[in-house]
Every structure is written in C-alpha cells, then in structure tokens.
Design brief:
Pfam families: Methyltransf_23 (PF13489)
Distance between the termini: 35 Å
InterPro entries: FdhE-like_sf, SAM-dependent_MTases_sf
Order of helices and strands: EEEEEHHHHEHEHEEHEHHEHEHHE
Organism: Candidatus Kaiserbacteria bacterium RIFCSPHIGHO2_02_FULL_49_16
Largest sheet: 7 strands, mixed
Strand content: 15-25%
CATH superfamily of one domain: Vaccinia Virus protein VP39
Number of strands: 13
Mean pLDDT: 91
CATH topology of one domain: Rossmann fold
Protein name: Methyltransferase type 11 domain-containing protein
Length: about 325
Amino acid sequence: MTQKDIINNCPLCGSRPSAVLTREIRGGLSRRVYHCGKCDLGILENGTRAEAEKFYKKAYREQHSHKVNAGAATKELFDAYLPFQGDRLKLLRPYFGKSKTLIEVGCSSGMFLYHAKKEVGKVIGVDYDAGSAAYAAKVCGCKTYGTDITKTPIPKGSADIVCAFQTLEHVNDPVSFLKTLGAYAKPGGIVAIEVPNLYDALRSLYDLPNYHTFYFHDAHPWYFSGKSLTKAMKKAGFVGTLHYLQDYNVLNHLHWADVDAPKQGGVAQLAAPRLPLRAGASKASRTDVTNLLQKFDADYKRLLSKHRLTSNLFFVGKKTR
C-alpha cells in the first residue's frame, strides 16, 4: 500500500485535520475519526481506497447491517426495504415523467428502482455487487450492471436523474465520484444524493456513549454534515436543495435512550411505530393509542428535521457546468 492509497486529508479543502471525533469505532476497533472544522466533515483515519469496492461486497452486509439480519440474502434485502422508499420518491417525484431516464448508482437489490420504474420511462441500475444488480434486473425488468458506472456502456449525458443513496460515504474520493455522476446527467438534469448525517440525534443530541462508537465504522471513510455535503456538491459543480430525513421511528430512539444498545426488530423500526396492544382491548382505545403514538412520531421527526438532527441528508442538485 502506498501513501496515496491512504485517505487522511479533507477532500474538500485539502487540510489535514487534527481534531478527533472518536478514537474507537463499531466493533471495538481502535481507529480515529478526524474532524475538519472548516468543512464540518468527519474523516476516518487511514481509510483506504480498497475499502470503496469492499463495501459493496457481502462482507459489509454481514458485518455492519443493523436493519436486517446479518448475511441477509438479496431477496430478503429487497423485501425488507421495498416499503420504505417513500421519502426518496416524494422528493424526486417533481422530476419524474414518462419521458425521463433514471440511473441509480448503488442500486442494491432494486428496492428504489422497482417504484421509480412506474413513474419514469426508463430505469438503469449500477452496483458493485453483481448478484444484487442481477436480482434488481430480474425483479424490476430493467437493465443493470454489476460494476463501476465508468465500465458500463451507459452513454454520458443520457439521464435526466442520477441517484446514489447511502453510497457517497463509501467512495474513495467524494468530489470525483459526484463529478462522475454528473457526467451521466443531461444538461439540466439532476443528481440526487443521500448520506448519513454526522449530526444524527442519537450521536449529537442524546448522551449515548455506545451509540457514539456504533455510529462510526470502518466502511465509511467520510461523515457528512449538511454543510460538508453542500460544499461537496458545489465543488463538484452542483447547486440545489438540502433536505433532512429521519428514517428510524421514535420507538427506536426511545430504546436507544433507555439502554444505549440496538433494538431488535430490523426494518420494523423504519415503519410507523406500534405498541403491543391486547386484541381484547376495545377497538376505540387501541385506535386512539396508536394514533397518538404515530402523531408523536411524525411530530418528533419534524422536530429533528427542524434542528437538522435527522439520520439522513438528501441533496437534489442541478449541474452548473
């Protein structure tokens, strides 16, 4: 491994930060995450360029997934996440249309493509995991590629919408990656990016030492805030709108707040929250309790968005050059 293969400097301003966000990451690994105060970006110590592709392999799923069972099969991932694409669809729907072409880079098993295909003229998926890409092609009835987008025959400047969800934080050079995505967008086309939020409430609002360590892990070289994501998009030639999205429900946060440990139940924590109410209780009481809880959940998510403490950031950008 050469020095150029090791990531330590800020990719946005070039500085070598010394402030440390953590000295321990998920799994009890001793590894620092530095913080560039100028750009508000977290940087994993000695992140390597080889980790970019490693993420897309099954090892990531087996080691790091906390939303579905470890080692989940491609079909299980598709089934698990298919119902939870609503926020992405809502934000991108203004750009949809039957004449539009959409490319998703990091498409996984096709959970988003499956829905998007119904609202645009053509969808194309790209993912380093060839097995996931093949499954997406089968279930979505679309063309997919199990490789880097630059190694595909997809023409540059051919897409109205280019998406990459939960992917930018894994690549070796985020600005270069964004520029590559932009190259496949038409003039006036958009690039939509979703990443975890450095200021996730469980890390930055609640006092949870275990979650703080759990949040950081060796598959993420970068930890974006709204400021650093916007700066990366601008540096890559995009202007647009930043959105704050909360996926996990309030019961998940209350569990973490109570025991500072993950809640069992996988993707159920992404659904509208429900309590274990007795079937013999009156329908009116069960309905009122459920409605109250779900209103609280919606209010809580709005509050997190207001204070920029959501789990995810979502940027919709147009090319400026």
